[in-house]
Amino acid sequence: MATLSLNLTHDAQARSWLASANGSDFPIQNLPYGRFRRTNSQEAWRCGVAIGDQVLDLAHLATQTSWLGAPGVNTALAKPAAQAASRDLRELMRMGTDAWHALRVAMFLALREDASPAVQQVVQSALIPQASADMTTPVQVGEYTDFYTSLHHARNVGLAIGNGGLVTPNFFWMPIAYHGRASSLGVNQRLHRPLGQAMAPGQDRPIYGPSQRLDYELEMAIYVGQDNDWGRPVSMEHAESHIFGMGLLNDWSARDIQFWEMSPLGPFQGKNFATSLSPWVVTMEALAPFRLPFTRADEHPQPLAYLDGQALRAHGGLDIHLSVSLQTAKMREHASPAQEISKTNFKHQHWCVSQMLVQHTAGGCNLHAGDVLGTGTVSGPTAQEAGAIIELAKAGREPITLANGEQRSFLLDGDAIVLRGACERAGFVRIGFGACCGEVLPAMPH
After folding, report:
1. Is 161:252 a contact under the CB 8 Å cutoff?
2. Pairing verdict, β 144-148 and 372-374
3. How far apart, in whole angstroms, are the C-alpha atoms of residue 424 and residue 413?
4. Which of 111, 198, 300, 359 has the highest local Cβ count within 10 Å?
5. Residues 195, 197, 198, 199, Cα dihedral to 10°
6. So what's the pLDDT on residue 4?
7. Active site includes 153?
8. For the stretch 370-385, what's the b/e string if a residue is b when 16 or more beta carbons lie within 10 angstroms of its beta carbon?
9. Which pLDDT score is estimated for 177?
10. Cβ(58)–Cβ(47) under 8 Å?
11. Do 102 and 153 meet the contact criterion of CB atoms below 8 Å apart?
12. pTM as predicted
């Protein structure tokens, strides 16, 4: 399991000549990728990099070469990497870690405050304000799989629905997942409340109609960066070289529909109506300073050999602070901001990102660059670290009360959910993931 080491792009003293980058979610130590076009235009979606409050247009930048001339830039790799990214981020992904690193170094040096005036002028010409850009999914996602890797979430939901917090035995031996629906992935979604079947408690006949138990799930998205051949599993040793980066993900869930349909198979219409992504992919190289040792409590089984390794034990974890905020329609009417209702950390997950990828390919499944793996809900050990409202409100029995007096057992029409994430560590610059936003609209008429 190869992990990118710390290098000049993690230098906490480095600042950008672009003032908005310094102290923002997107300093030069971050440089996440996304897809954009100018607002109200019919331009083709194209790849960009977030820097401060701007988007660096890689299609424009790739037509230039002078910005690649700084000492330390591997031009032989950085130039074709920029050209590949300008066409399709998946092309850059397939070039591998050396190309990813070369382009990152080139952009870092071109944006650093000591870049020459000529380089600054070229880069400046490729900047577009984020406020003037529409965003879509960072890549055109081919396949989407959602995992279930938080022990705290599994226990909390079990307690909420009355099974005593029991967790199935297989949870402790492998990352569990189901195949989702890539076509319903989106950015800044305004989603309609789904229709479906549900069985009310004490009834013997299901009803069909709008979900009454709509929920969010605080998750992270893992972006696959390398294809693996059909029939050939990826080993733990090579897993990280197959992961390009991570973003935020909201796995919207219609709990009443979900729980009725999940016996005996997995989620279907309770999940496939919408999944929201944040616009930006933070690369694994940017996350290198925030790695943690992977540890497993003594009372739980240690991973089988194919899901284990020395490098995993040394730095398989990730220290990512996450939060959920809710803004009701009434709050918007009064110009009140979204209220934070929970916060947690990705380090609490029972399984790591590399283990999820390895498990996905263990049977021979061939992943492709640009595929998305959801991590499953991220919940922590305390009540206020729950990653879904079904946990916070105890399946509706204990509604949460907002600052304006409104209460929520599940989401109502007009509610908007905002997920945020950031990494912080002494001696390094804070980097952010931006926001993953979604608003609930009334159900569509049948």
Report:
1. no
2. parallel
3. 35
4. 111
5. 160
6. 65
7. yes
8. bbbbbbbbbbbeeeeb
9. 97
10. yes
11. no
12. 0.97
Q: Give pLDDT tens digits for 125-179.
A: 999 999 999 999 999 999 999 999 999 999 999 998 888 888 999 999 999 999 9
Give the active site residue among 101, 152, 153, 242. 153
Those residues with Cβ within 8 angstroms of residue 312's Cβ, 6 or more apart along the chain or in another chain: 1, 236, 294, 352, 354, 355
pLDDT (tens digit per residue) in 185-241: 999 999 999 999 999 888 999 999 999 999 999 999 999 999 999 999 999 999 999
pLDDT in tens, 262-291: 988 889 999 999 999 999 999 999 999 999
**How far is Cα 170 from Cα 149, in angstroms, rounded to an integer?**
11
Tokens of 122: 């070229």
Please say whether the beta carbons of 197 and 207 come within 8 A.
yes
Residue-range domains of the chain with CATH: 8-135 (2.30.30.230), 144-441 (3.90.850.10)
What is the Cα–Cα distance from 224 to 240, expressed in whole angstroms?
9
> Which tokens hold the place of 328?
């009701």
Strand-pairing partners, residue 300, are: none
Residue 222, both tokens: 């893992």
Backbone phi, then psi, for 177, in 5-degree steps?
-155, 165
